[in-house]
Amino acid sequence: MSPAVTPGTIPGPPAEPVDKPAKLTEWPLWEVFVRSKAGLDHKHCGSLHASDPQMAIQLARDVYTRRQEGTSVWVVRSDQITASDPGDKAAYFDPMADKVYRHPTFYELPKSLDHM
Amino acid sequence: MTQASIKISREPSVQYLLRLGDTCLIHAQRTAEWCGHAPLPEEDIALSNMALDLVGQARAVLTRAGQLEAQLGGAAHDEDQLAFLREERDFRNLTLAELPRGDFAMTMLRNFALATFFKLLWTKLERSSDAELAGIAGKALKEARYHQEHSGDWVVRLGDGTAESAARMKAALDSLWPYFAEIFESDAIDDEAAASGLGPRWAELAADWRTEFADVLGAAGLQLPADRPFRSTGKSGRHSEHLGYILAEMQHLQRAFPGGVW
In whole numbers, what is the pLDDT of chain B averaged over residues? Predict the structure, then answer.
């Protein structure tokens, strides 16, 4: 039921501005990955807020590569990353602690592969 | 005790370089004013980075202007003397660069207009008959390309954004538009530079600038305003009232403590 406007009266301003600007904190968070040089992996180096992918890439360039740290940048929306639950840490990762046989350290390597 | 001002050669090639170097320098000062005031920390760093790019360009171009001045029989002024010891009337920057920074929309629109112009100019200057200037252009062109992309995206984002951001971008366009015309006013100094191969007449860049500028305005939902007869005259040393305040702030240390260094 919309409030009726009596003829002859001037309706007041709407309670909320029609075009309420979004708060900065409502901009999505992005994770930034920088490759330091060709051939190396992109490494996670931090995060930032940006309104769109293009802005995220540019700001990542300005914030994380200004001292020649990078040759390539990836950004990923933080809410697109699925992470393991810290509460599962023991169940997930502790069982690996006593499985030394999973490390390939029991093989004799030929001399030519010594530095593998 | 204060440091006396220096006088600058009227040689056209020196004047041509001062127009370029001074526009970079004053534009850098205005851009750097956002340091600590930008709407978000990442943008604060981005604007400071860009201001420092412009300072670097100004240093290189002013250094070259001083060298040319010496070669042509004038005094050998270095970049610091040129930046800190000239009077307002001897600055040759575009009036556009010295206007107050305004709001974020105004800053981004000016940055976009100037970056687009600089990109076109540096592209031509890469083929300058002056090898030193051509070298400076090669490095500066990459920086200008990024500045154009960064500010152009903001022009679109704000122009095509909320009612408030669109209104601010429209207001910025209306107030800055009359000052864009000065960029492409050519005179005897430009003729001389074109004849010697030092650089293009700035008027030659007008058509390309207009196309690129209109494209981004179109994406932002804005239209080119009508041209007006008003012409600002910073390039010939007749400035708005704003430049004096910038110079007072920028020069007072060198004036009060001549030769002071870090």
Answer: 96
Q: How many residues does chain A have?
A: 116
Higher pLDDT, B74 or B62: B62
Closest CA to B52 of B35, B32, B34: B32
CB-based contact B235:B87 (threshold 8 Å): no
ipTM rounded to 2 decimals: 0.81
- The CATH code of the domain at B12-256 is 1.20.1260.10
Domain range list for chain B: 12-256
**Minimum distance, in Å, between the CA of residue A86 and any CA atom of chain B:** 30
CA distances from B74 to A12, B13, B16, B87 (A): 70, 12, 16, 18
Nearest by CB: B45 against A19, A50, A62: A62
Which pTM does this prediction carry?
A: 0.86
Which pair of structure tokens corresponds to residue B4? 């006396």
Q: List the single residue in A21, A51, A55 with the smallest CB-CB distance to B164.
A: A21
CA separation for the pair A61, A69 (Å, rounded):
10
**Burial class of A18 by CB neighbour count within 10 A (0 to 12, 13 to 18, 19+):** exposed
Whether pLDDT at A19 is above 60: no
* Chain B residues in contact with chain A using a Cβ-Cβ cutoff of 8 Å: 39-40, 42-43, 45-46, 49, 146, 149-150, 153, 157, 162-165
